[in-house]
Design brief:
The complex is a heterodimer of chains A (458) and B (340). Chain A is an alpha+beta fold and 458 residues long. Chain A folds into 3 domains: 8-161, Beta-Lactamase, CATH 3.30.450; 205-306; 307-458, Heat Shock Protein 90 (2-Layer Sandwich). Chain A has helices at residues 8-56, 71-80, 153-188, 190-200, 219-267, 271-305, 314-331, 351-368, 423-433; strands at 58-61, 64-67, 85-91, 94-98, 115-121, 124-137, 140-151, 310-312, 335-339, 347-349, 374-380, 384-390, 437-442, 449-456. In chain A, α1 runs antiparallel to α2 and α7 (314-331) runs parallel beside α8 (351-368). The radius of gyration of chain A is 52 Å and the shape is rod-shaped. Chain A starts with 7 loop residues before the first helix and ends with a strand. The model of chain A has no long low-confidence stretch (mean pLDDT 84). Chain B has helices at 2-17, 44-57, 69-78, 91-99, 109-112, 150-159, 161-164, 177-189, 192-202, 211-219, 231-238, 269-280, 286-292, 323-337, and strands spanning 24-28, 36-40, 62-66, 85-88, 103-104, 119-120, 124-137, 168-171, 206-208, 225-230, 244-247, 253-263, 308-310. With 340 residues, chain B is an alpha/beta fold. In chain B, α6 runs parallel beside α9 (192-202). In chain B, strands 1, 2, 3, 4, 5, 6, 7, 8, 9, 10, 11, 12 and 13 form a 13-stranded mixed β-sheet that branches. Chain B folds into 2 domains: 6-128 and 258-311, D-Maltodextrin-Binding Protein, domain 2 (3-Layer(aba) Sandwich), CATH 3.40.190.10; 130-254 and 324-337, D-Maltodextrin-Binding Protein, domain 2 (3-Layer(aba) Sandwich), CATH 3.40.190. Classes of the chains: A alpha+beta (458), B alpha/beta (340). The A-B interface holds A 66-75, 77-79, 82, 84-86, 96-98, 122-124 and B 98-101, 120-121, 188, 312, 314-316, 318-320, 322-325, 328.
């Protein structure tokens, strides 16, 4: 089972929909109660009118109480529905006419006429009304009761129509309320989305506090975010400082040790001592180089996250690296040939990182080239600029090429040469940070390999 | 001797059980199904074509008993006689049976197709609409204007007592349920009714039980006119009875609906339902209307502007069945019509 992340919007919509559903149900029942009361009242009114008109038609004829049921008294009950109709006229407790088993509705408490009741009569539930009237005939007061009853099938039909209507209204109300609550939730969450968008749009080195207009509910979040940004900024500053500091602290003493060791080496007579010292110098070189590359790598990682781009001339980049490393190459009698066309080509990139990358490639080439060979440095313009450095060294073992740029991975044929395994990793990281790539291929002109830094340029 | 005693006893028993009077009983055998027992006020001769056509579709054996509308009421209301279908021209009594819970509910596509005024509570179904008309002897009216409405009729009777004395006929409403229905509807619809009755009383009006006899009397010249005759019967007799004229009043025409219902005691309600469907669809069988002379229910007759208005089924019809109301009405009527 996968847990979907909780959503404020969904929770809001669900809760509002629940409220709307409750209200719809309440509305449905309220509507039904009101409407059914109204229809019942209507039936009661017609019944009362019918009974009253019968009561009015009671008359005395030569001292005898008689009643002439008006046609309309019963026909009016038939106009609304096809319900069964019963009536009973009672004179002083004796049936005068009508259905003599039709009971007088029992009335709870003292009420005024007309009084209503509901009871079972002839297998049907009937609504009954009684209207009373006193009559003077032959010097006697006579009491006349008129009961009119009607079945409730018409009422049931109206009730079912009301239920249908109430249901429809309830459903429409619920749907409308849910749609509106969805809209309201969207609206309520808009400031949050705006804030998220404002933070997302920021540049990589933009560590200013968030000042966007936010509702009071989001103020704690913004305060927390700003505090976090401030801490991040100071942490970044500290680590940059540390890198610079460490570079100085490690490299300077190692350089001193090496210089001293070289001087001692020159004064040594015994071959075994000279060998030991050469091994020591080699170790110092290895440490110095490793420290340098570790720091380089840390710096590349740090700066890659927050590139400070400027327009850089790739030819100048290569020329600069060749100039710097020419002395080292001269020591091994290695010739560096340049093929750097003057062009207006520009690479958008971080100068320090790109210099670092190019230096690493060239450094590698010099290191693994045998004495008295040639290194070709070329700039091939195109859709992407190709900064190609080819040596005549031992090349790469084909199986190693894919592994090569991984951290601390070294070729299987270079055990005898000092190296940290970080050089090509740095190059690759820089290339990728600039949207470029690192390519490694065998040198087509003889032995050795070509390492190419491919960078987007304009 | 013993058999004779037994027979006598049996006849006594049946006599006690069956207190209502059957005028005629016909059996129509057919191969299959439960027997359909019909109690009807319509003459067997009139109804026979319907039964024949029905049996052609549904071969069900049928017993057709003819009784007066009052006897139909006695049979079903007081004695719970076992019938599957009650057909009567007395709409008020049929309505009372349905109102008082003695009729079964029935509905089908055919009854749904009936106009709303032609059925009540899905228990009483009308299948004919038969107007009350004035039937005249053509010879007697050679020198007279034919009256168009009740006022005209009153004036005519007043002006020519020598022509009409003893030669006016109408229903004896004490005997005929249909006559009572027409008379009470007249009294409800027009102020002229009581004056007309008074005038008719002064002319020694002759009272009849049935439309058929009145039509015969008019045809034979015994009567110059008969009031509130069942138009369908008169129409049916028009062909073979020369010398009679049928007049529909233009102030209003009471239209009786002949109705059918399934009594609560029915033992074959399905067969009765088939017959009701058949009767409800009679407007689709003009051949039967011709053969029986019974005009089938057509929608449109209930429209308001029409002077030809079917008597409305419903609780209003119960009013004139009220004992006191009936007593009062009959007393007034008798005192008006009999002026010796």
């Amino acid at each position: 089972m996968t847990r979907t992340p909780s959503s404020i919007r969904r929770r809001l919509v669900v809760q509002l929909a629940l409220v709307a559903a409750l209200l719809s149900v309440a509305f449905f029942f309220a509507l039904r109660v009101v409407a059914e009361r109204a229809t019942e009242a209507t039936q009661d009114n017609i019944l009362a009118a019918s009974a009253t008109s019968i009561a009015d038609a009671v008359y005395t004829d030569a001292g005898v109480v008689r009643v002439e049921i008006p046609y309309s008294a019963l026909s009016m009950l038939g106009t609304v529905s096809e319900d069964r109709v019963f009536y009973h006229v009672i004179l002083d407790g004796q049936t005068l006419t009508g259905y003599d088993d039709l009971p007088v509705p029992e009335v709870r408490g003292a009420g005024r006429d007309p009084r209503f009741g509901t009871y079972l009569y002839r297998d049907d539930t009937v609504r009954a009304v009684v209207v009373r009237r006193a009559l003077n005939a032959a010097d006697r007061i006579h009491r006349v009761e008129v009961v009119v009853a009607q079945t409730r099938l018409g009422l049931a039909a109206i009730s079912s129509r009301i239920t249908t209507t109430a249901t429809a209204i309830g459903v429409v109300f619920f749907l409308a309320a849910t749609a509106l609550s969805s809209f309201a939730a969207q609206n309520a969450l808009a400031p949050l989305n705006r804030l998220a968008e404002a933070v997302r749009r920021r540049g990589p080195r933009d560590l200013r506090p968030v000042t966007a207009e936010t509702p009071t509910e989001l103020a704690p979040l913004v305060r927390g975010l700003n505090g976090f940004i401030a801490r991040l900024r100071s942490a970044l500053t500290r680590s940059e400082d540390l890198i610079v500091e460490a570079a100085h602290r490690v490299r300077t003493p190692l350089a001193t040790v090496r210089t001293q060791a070289e001087m001692v080496h020159l004064q040594m007579e015994k071959p075994e001592n000279r060998t030991a010292l050469r091994q020591m110098i080699r170790a110092v070189d290895e440490s110095s180089r490793s420290a340098g590359q570790l720091l380089d790598h840390a710096m590349v990682t740090l700066r890659s996250d927050q590139l400070e781009t400027e327009a850089i001339d790739p030819a100048e980049l290569l020329r600069d690296a060749v100039d710097r490393l020419s002395p080292t190459a001269d020591l091994k009698d290695i010739t560096i040939t340049r093929d750097l066309p003057d062009s207006a080509l520009r690479v958008q990139g971080d100068a320090i990182l790109l210099q670092n990358a190019v230096r690493n490639i060239l450094d590698n080439a010099i290191k693994y080239s045998p004495a008295d060979t040639e290194i070709a440095v070329r700039l091939i313009p195109g859709l992407s600029c190709r900064l190609e450095i080819c040596d005549q060294g031992r090349g790469f073992v084909a199986e190693d090429v894919a592994q090569m740029p991984e951290r601390f991975s070294r070729g299987s044929n270079v055990e005898d040469v000092v190296g940290s395994g970080l050089g090509l990793t740095i190059v690759r990281d820089v290339a990728e940070a600039h949207g470029g790539a690192l390519e490694i291929a065998p040198n087509e002109k003889g032995p050795g390999a070509c390492v190419t830094l491919v960078l987007p340029c304009s | 001797m013993r058999h004779a005693c037994l027979a006598l006893l049996l006849s006594l028993v049946t006599g006690v059980v069956q207190a209502f009077e059957i005028e005629e009983s016909r059996r129509y055998p057919a191969p299959g199904g439960t027997e359909l027992r019909i109690l009807s006020t319509a003459d067997a001769d009139v109804f026979e074509p319907i039964i024949a056509a029905f049996q052609a579709l549904h071969p069900i054996p049928i017993t057709y008993d003819v009784a007066s509308s009052a006897q139909v009421m006695t049979a079903l209301y007081d004695e719970s006689a076992t019938y599957d279908l009650a057909i009567s021209s007395a709409m008020d009594l049929q309505t009372k049976l349905a109102n008082d819970g003695l009729a079964q509910r029935y509905s089908s596509d055919a009854t749904a197709a009936l106009p709303p005024w032609a059925k009540w509570r899905d228990r009483v179904f009308a299948f004919t609409q038969e107007p009350a008309v004035l039937v005249l002897n053509a010879q007697a009216f050679e020198a007279l204007d034919i009256p168009k409405n009740r006022e005209g009729l009153i004036a005519l009777l007043r002006d020519h007592p020598q022509v009409f004395d003893g030669r006016v006929g109408t229903y004896d409403v004490r005997v005929s349920g249909l006559g009572y229905l027409f008379a009470t509807q007249d009294s409800r619809n027009t102020e002229s009714f009581w004056r007309l009755t008074e005038v008719m009383g002064r002319l020694n009006t002759r009272l009849y039980c049935c439309s058929g006899e009145m039509i015969n009397a008019v045809a034979q010249g015994e009567l110059a006119l008969a009031y509130n005759v069942l138009g369908s019967y008169a129409q049916a007799r028009l062909q073979d009875t020369p010398g009679i004229v049928i007049v529909e009043m233009d102030d209003f025409v009471s239209v009786m609906l002949r109705t059918a219902l399934i009594p609560q005691t029915a033992e074959a309600p399905q067969a009765a339902g088939l017959m009701i469907d058949f009767l409800a669809a009679m407007r689709l069988r003009p051949d039967l209307a011709t053969a029986t002379g019974l005009p089938p229910v057509v929608s449109g007759a209930g429209e308001d502007e029409n002077v030809i208005r079917p008597i409305r089924l419903g609780p209003g019809l119960l009013v004139f069945l009220d004992r006191l109301r009936r007593d009062t009405f009959l007393r007034s009527w008798v005192s008006s019509i009999e002026q010796e």
